User: Which sequence fits this backbone?
């Protein structure tokens, strides 16, 4: 009895702490629903309620949201294609220099994105990939590939050896073992890697603002939002409404795929 | 030394075992085939941009020579210019403050929350999940929201200070911008620290706590004598990764203040010079890549320290 009471007291503190932590997000939603004339008044809830900002934003930002989806899915595809086979090789086959690879993958995640962006910028200028969607997908995938390899490899090295040996005795080649044994059991890891690849590509600001500056409407939503900030008459209503729309993938992922997100967060201690 | 010798035979056993299981040549060939795309990828999309970056720092690139491609080789001249420039040391100092203050608060708040959530209570899993939201949101979303909250005239933060009779603060102006971006960055980093330290706490055997409780140790004592010392390896990793990630932060600062005033760090300085934005209206490719190379070296050193720490904890 005493114990239960004390725990509910902890719940109350927990609610308050969570409330403080998430207050900025509440504030964003609050402003996005507040009429223009009332925004500077700073009411604690949107009593001057309106959907107008969303109407404006859907009109202005829809192409950017579409581009972001394309870039996100492209990045997921590229990341999975490269990281899953490599992780299988590193975790289950004999690869010379395996330790070097592991070290490189850790360091790769520590390289400042500014440095990468500057390098990509010069290369893309020569290749004509500047301001293109494929160029952005390639750059965005560098955020997720090292993480993907490490997450897949951690899971795959736990697959019971007997399973692979049995397949080998049956005459399955390394590729067949990968395709028909390893990949199906690694489905959960693939979902986790895919989720994070999508989220990082969707959230990317640095590569988009440098490699895809002149892409017009073929730029992601982060740039659409940045354009709003940049325009001199700062309209906070539409700005916050765009911010809410840009947060939707995160919200969906947290609700629908929380299990996978949790798996990625603890496994990916190596990622921001 | 002893430890090292003990470790080696064990690590060699794995590949040799694999070789026996899969026939040597075919197994190795297949392994190489599976890893080859990654190797090619790392060369083209990591090594090449990095080499390109370092090479730019040794040549004098301007807008004109960037297009024509015949920038003269100048060795360390641009490095000397950057390091002796009036911006360099103030920027290093601001970067140090940004990183260290961020880490101090992220870590202590994250640790406090991890201890708070360690013992389950009703709703604890849901609330802990909600704490992660700021981490998963696009940074531009958080940065824009903080920018509005820190608005001098109508921001909620100044309104809140007003309740206590405090004067409004011009958060985003040149003198205070370092503190503004640091506060936002602390908020962003709390979830990461919470997650890692929480999973560290979960790995401490609970009978240690029970034994200490029987011996009459209170919660405070149990924290300092059990949790904190046993968390040391996890803490080291958390702070190390936090250091690397904070050092390279650009977006939160750039979106809030475009790196103006005291909020200029090495990373935003490089970004501004490379793309001719913010305080640097002129594009300075070479200077930017010098600062980038300095950041890169810091990342490499930290990568080595990370591997060393990880190696030590495994033994």
Assistant:
């Amino acid at each position: 009895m005493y114990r239960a009471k004390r725990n509910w007291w902890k719940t109350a503190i927990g609610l308050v702490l969570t409330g403080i932590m998430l207050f900025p997000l509440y504030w964003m939603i609050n402003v996005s629903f507040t009429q223009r004339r009332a925004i500077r008044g700073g009411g604690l809830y949107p009593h001057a309620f309106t959907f107008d900002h969303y109407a404006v934003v859907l009109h202005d930002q829809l192409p950017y949201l579409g581009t972001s989806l394309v870039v996100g899915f492209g990045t997921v595809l590229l990341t999975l294609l490269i990281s899953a086979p490599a992780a299988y090789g590193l975790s289950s086959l004999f690869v010379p220099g395996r330790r070097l690879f592991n070290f490189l993958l850790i360091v790769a995640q520590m390289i400042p994105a500014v440095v990468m962006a500057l390098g990509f910028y010069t290369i893309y200028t020569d290749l004509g990939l500047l301001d293109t969607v494929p160029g952005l997908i390639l750059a965005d995938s560098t955020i997720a590939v090292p993480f993907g390899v490490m997450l897949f490899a951690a899971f795959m090295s736990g697959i019971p050896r007997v399973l692979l040996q049995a397949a080998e005795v049956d005459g399955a080649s390394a590729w067949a073992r990968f395709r028909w044994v390893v990949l199906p059991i690694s489905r959960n890891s693939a979902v986790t890697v895919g989720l994070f690849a999508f989220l990082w590509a969707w959230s990317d600001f640095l590569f988009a603002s440098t490699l895809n500056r002149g892409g017009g409407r073929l730029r992601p939503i982060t740039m659409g939002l940045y354009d709003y900030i940049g325009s001199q008459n700062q309209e906070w209503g539409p700005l916050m409404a765009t911010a809410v729309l840009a947060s939707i993938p995160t919200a969906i992922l947290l609700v629908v795929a929380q299990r996978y997100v949790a798996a990625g967060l603890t496994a990916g201690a190596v990622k921001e | 030394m002893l430890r090292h010798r003990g470790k080696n035979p064990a690590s060699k056993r794995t590949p040799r075992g694999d070789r026996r299981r899969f026939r040597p040549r075919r197994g190795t060939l297949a392994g190489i085939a599976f890893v080859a795309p990654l190797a090619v990828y790392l060369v083209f999309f990591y090594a090449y941009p990095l080499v390109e970056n370092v090479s730019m720092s040794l040549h004098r690139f301007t807008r004109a020579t960037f297009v024509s491609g015949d920038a003269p080789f100048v060795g360390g001249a641009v490095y000397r210019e950057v390091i002796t420039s009036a911006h360099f040391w103030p920027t290093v100092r601001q970067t140090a403050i940004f990183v260290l203050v961020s880490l101090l608060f992220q870590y202590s708040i994250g640790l406090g929350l991890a201890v708070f959530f360690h013992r389950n209570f009703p709703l604890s899993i849901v609330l802990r999940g909600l704490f992660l939201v700021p981490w998963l949101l696009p940074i531009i979303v958080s940065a824009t929201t903080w920018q509005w909250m820190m608005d001098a005239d109508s921001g909620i933060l100044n309104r809140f200070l007003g309740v206590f009779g405090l004067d409004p603060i011009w958060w985003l102006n040149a003198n205070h911008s370092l503190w503004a971006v640091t506060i936002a960055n602390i908020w962003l980093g709390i979830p990461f620290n919470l997650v890692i330290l929480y999973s560290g706490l979960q790995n401490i055997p609970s009978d240690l706590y029970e034994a200490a409780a029987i011996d009459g140790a209170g919660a405070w004592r149990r924290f300092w004598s059990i949790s904190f010392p046993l968390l040391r390896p996890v803490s080291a990793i958390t702070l190390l990764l936090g250091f690397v990630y904070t050092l390279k932060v650009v977006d939160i600062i750039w979106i809030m203040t475009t790196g103006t005033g005291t909020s200029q760090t090495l990373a935003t300085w490089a970004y501004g010079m490379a793309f001719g934005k913010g305080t640097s209206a002129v594009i300075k490719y070479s200077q930017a890549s010098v600062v980038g190379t300095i950041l890169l070296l810091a990342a490499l050193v930290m990568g080595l320290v990370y591997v060393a720490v990880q190696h030590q904890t495994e033994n």
Chain A touches chain B through 98 residues (CB under 8 Å). The radius of gyration of chain A is 23 Å.
